[in-house]
Amino acid sequence: MIADQVVEEPCEVKISSTVLKTSRRGDRPAEFISLHPTKRRINFTDKKEIGELKLMGKWDIHTYPVKSIKRVRIVRRADGFFVQFCIDVECKQEVQSTGQEIGLDFGLEHFYTDSNGYHEPNPRFLRKAQKQIKHAQRRIYKKQKGTNGRKKARNRYARKHLKISRQRTEHAKSRARHVMRSNDLCVYENLQVRNMVRNHHLAKSINDAGWRQFRSYLEYFANKCGKVALAVEPHYTSQECPRCGMMVKKSLSTRTHTCKCGCVLQRDYAAAINILRKGKEKIATSGHGGSKTSKQKSRNARGVETSVQSGAILIE
Q1: Is residue 304 domain-resident?
Q2: 115 and 252 share a domain?
Q3: What is the Cα–Cα distance from 237 to 275, expressed in whole angstroms?
């Protein structure tokens, strides 16, 4: 968790039950924050009348020195208020080289297909919980506006979406960690998800897959483990034959690649092989070393820009 580099996850600690106005939430500069000696309470002194809050949960904040805490943020979730700590620690991990290389083809039928022929199942968290979400949404409109019953129904509905979001995040994190620890080189598609979701027939499934989030964690674990994660353009990876290089045009509904040279492969498997080959060619020709941290502004793993400079120190 580093203020000036990509971090895995902001450390979130739940605070005791309370209600904070919108103007009182957000980032806090270091000079307006102090921690209790036990580090189980935090005091805000920025004249927003927040005062001292009790920290709940089992996060190991007490194991870090106070000077290593660079930024604190109050956020609100459907299940309560949380305090995010951005901690300046070395985020490197020694992982042995495996000598393996892999290409990933993202899809909807499978979450991804690698160049070894493995198909990672698509969890489809939103699709599986869609019935419960619709039921919770209908319960909202059966309650009278302005009543506590309606507020509780809205909160139950929000908790359903929050659970899906957390499931999707943990799935992307665990799969990306496994891929980067098992391979020295990972090549994947540089998909423009923002343009792909304009197809209203596939938008829900594309957003439910969470390809962009998975890619972010691939790049993070590549930097953390000293591996290489490289994005290549996806053009014609599904049409080109991985054996002879001939173009075999096929529609999206055609799931089997069949070439005149006798190559018959599952469509996504053939695309993953082509993606890995394009990645090797890109490294050989341009010497591209893989993903790099953005030089414009430092961001954390959630894509949130840091609001406190890396040199700022939290006063005790």
Answers
A1: no
A2: yes
A3: 6
Q: How many domains does the chain have?
A: 2
- 76/158 same-domain check: no
Catalytic residue, from 88, 120, 189, 219: name it. Answer: 189
Q: Which domain holds residue 126?
A: 101-286
Longest dimension (CA), the chain: 74
Residue 105 falls in the annotated catalytic set: yes
Task: Express each pLDDT in 74-125 by its tens digit.
Answer: 888 898 888 888 888 777 778 888 889 999 999 999 999 999 999 999 999 9
For residues 77 and 123, membership in a common domain is answered with no
> Is 4 one of the annotated active-site residues of the chain?
no
Q: Does 80 lie in the same domain as 207?
A: no
Cβ–Cβ under 8 Å, residues 95 and 181: yes
Residue 189 designated active-site:
yes
Q: What are phi and psi of 14, to 5 degrees?
A: -75, 145
